[in-house]
Write a structure and sequence with these properties.
By secondary structure, the protein is of the alpha/beta class. The chain has 15 helices and 22 strands. A hairpin with a 4-residue loop joins strand 6 and strand 7.
Length: about 525
């Protein structure tokens, strides 16, 4: 492994009257054989500390080295080599943060954890936070909120591992472009305004102390590079962890979170795009929607003959709401049971004991109050269905637009990697029924979990992966859907179940009503 931070044990010859080499020069000379061909430096800010500790240790012990782009930096010197070298990998999500603590000495996982992104109190979505950042001290508040969250998460992980947070010597961060701007305290104003240009796509590494992080003050912070405003480092992580950029076969990566982000290609070429299809699929649009977690309905079945409705929550507890995969299952089941028509509208036929009138119109009871965790029924209304139809149409339109851009058919794809909670919980069969995913053999779809976090872990462990990321962003072609007319035309045709052209979905029953 060529880790981001390394411990190098050395035993230098002490100075004498016959050897007047300076302490820092002596240290660099003793280490040089380990780093042939690359510059080895001691940053000015660390020079006095490193020299003092080197002499105090009697010129023998452990140098702490950061593997920076183009050079190595000596940032500390220890009298003895510690048993662990902790580093933190972070998926910096819009709604949640997920992290792992890794021992860089052997690559083992010391702890895992997650917590809600406290920025939600300033806006549930990215656009709201960008507007908030433009107000008085708005950016400062959002920046400090995310730093506080990371510090709390780091303390949680360190506590699980029996360590102090100050022992964490590196942090890799993977997130969408806006979240990275908040993290680095960069103005996100232009991210949502044409021509949608970030302040930076490939930030240089910085120090934890510079950001106010309660890690080792000299801990290196490596931020995954991005391609544009709507193509962040989290998707670069997905490409990295799936191996899409090294595949001989043409494959696709789908990552659904705040946006639906898609990459298509192989080791020869990569094309990508992103669009706003995520929130409804995360359960963020439906009133009873929730993220995939305890009490979330993740699967639903309806027997068209008996009318029996069965549902399953993620942890088999009483339901509290319904997550994205549950909504997909439910709407697909609605269609097959003829509860809704091809437009996603309630037909109002049968299941009279399940329908209720609300302030926003007709709604369907998925779980009665006596079945739920809080005594309140879990319902889905027509407004929720309409949001779902828009999201599923956007998803399929994104996929068809990007494949058409390079003259491919879906059948040409060897594999479709589906990332995140969406990929972990979704039933591809039901998504095909809705017309959200292409009608392909089910083994084409491969869930890969939290690829954003997986990529952040990889760059901590291997220089080759850090270099891959930076090389990758130079060869990705990004398709801007905000100004793409083909996408808008395809979107209109996709707002039916499964599609206006039902020949695209031969495995899905078609009801002409």
């Amino acid at each position: 492994m060529q880790t981001l931070v390394q411990f190098i044990s050395i035993e230098a010859i002490p100075p004498s009257l016959g050897d007047n080499t300076g302490d820092i020069d002596r240290l660099k000379k003793a280490l040089q054989s380990n780093f042939a061909g690359r510059e080895l430096v001691v940053p000015y800010a660390r020079m006095a500390e490193v020299a003092g500790r080197f002499r105090q240790a009697d010129f023998s012990g452990c140098a702490v080295i950061c593997d920076m782009p183009g050079r190595f930096e000596i940032v500390d010197f220890l009298a003895q080599t510690p048993a662990v070298l902790p580093a933190m990998a972070l998926d910096l999500g819009t709604t949640h943060l997920e992290a792992s603590l890794i021992n860089l000495l052997d690559g083992s996982i010391l702890a895992r954890g997650n917590r809600e992104n406290a920025q939600i109190s300033y806006g549930a979505d990215i656009l709201s936070r960008i507007h908030f950042a433009a107000g008085h001290e708005g950016l400062d508040k959002l920046h400090q909120e995310i730093i506080n969250c990371i510090n709390k998460l780091a303390a949680q992980l360190a506590g699980k591992a029996g360590l102090a947070t100050e022992e964490i010597r590196a942090l890799s961060v993977s997130g969408n472009t806006t979240m990275i701007h908040f993290f680095l305290r960069l103005d996100p104003y232009h991210l949502c305004r044409e021509p949608y240009i970030p302040l930076v796509n490939d930030p240089d590494p910085c120090r934890a102390g510079d950001l106010g992080l309660n890690l080792h003050e000299e801990g290196v912070v490596w931020v995954m590079p991005s391609v544009g405003s709507y193509f962040g480092g989290d998707l670069i992580s997905g490409i990295l962890s799936s191996g899409l950029d090294q595949s001989e076969d043409t494959c696709m990566l789908i990552d659904v979170g705040t946006n639906a982000e898609v990459v298509l290609g192989n080791r020869e070429w990569l094309i990508a795009c992103a669009g706003a299809a995520g929130p409804a699929l995360e359960g963020g649009v439906a009133k009873m929607g929730m993220r995939a977690g305890p009490g979330a309905i993740e699967h639903v079945k309806i027997d068209p003959d008996s009318g029996r409705i069965d549902f399953q929550t993620i942890d088999n507890s009483a339901p509290r709401g319904i997550c994205g995969s549950g909504i997909i299952d439910l709407v697909a089941a609605f269609y097959l049971a003829r509860i809704i028509d091809i437009r996603g509208k309630f037909r109002g036929v049968g299941y009279e004991d399940r329908f209720i009138e609300t302030d926003e119109g007709l709604a369907f009871i998925v779980a009665h109050g006596h079945e739920s965790a809080n005594g309140e029924p879990v319902v889905i209304g027509q407004v929720d269905l309409d949001a779902m139809m828009r999201s599923k149409a956007a998803m399929y339109s994104i996929l068809t637009t990007i494949t058409n851009q390079v003259g491919l058919e879906f059948a040409d794809l060897k594999r479709i990697y589906v990332a995140g909670a969406f990929g972990r919980h979704i039933d591809p069969r039901q998504a095909i029924t809705l017309g959200m995913l292409p009608d392909l053999p089910l083994d084409t779809f491969e869930p890969i979990g939290n690829s954003s976090l997986a990529g952040a872990e990889q760059v901590l462990l291997e220089r080759a992966d850090r270099e891959r990321c930076r090389e990758m962003i130079r060869r990705i072609t990004y398709l801007e859907l905000n100004v793409n007319q083909e996408f808008m035309l395809r979107f209109s045709g996709s707002r039916f179940i499964p599609h206006t052209d039902h020949t695209l979905f031969p495995s899905v029953p078609f009801f002409n009503d």
